[in-house]
Amino acid sequence: MSTQESGIFPTTDHGGHGAGEHGHEEGNHGSLKSYATGFLLAVLLTAVPFWLVLGKVFDRSTTTAIVILALAAVQIVVHMIYFLHMNSRAEGGWTMLALIFTVMLVVIMLSGSIWVMYHLDHNMMPGMMPDASQTMRAMSAAP
Fold this sequence. Notes:
By secondary structure, the protein is mainly alpha-helical. It is built from 5 helices and no strands. Among the domains are: 57 residues; 38 residues. The chain is 63% helix and 0% strand. Helix 2 packs antiparallel against helix 3. The longest helix has 31 residues.
């Protein structure tokens, strides 16, 4: 009696497809060329910000920060396309829809949090404003 027949290693029915297939659509899982392109782009998008900071390319640090944030956004897109294989055709478009929904939620939460914190700071800390001491004196002097 073999080990498969004895129940030690039970066999499973894969419904007409091989054990290596998982019901995914036939899609491009990447070639060596696409992975190499993605890798080179990722290295370039990592090295350029280091060069910008270490070489002090821009006079203002805010300009450097904005350029680095833009390069970071481009690198996220590179990773999603070349390594995660996300496009409008993958998984019938559901991965792209989930990504758009996630980005929308993050933008709403971040902008709402910043808006609330700004208004809390503005409304709760009037003594910290430069001309607030003059305003407070004028208010206390009024009858």
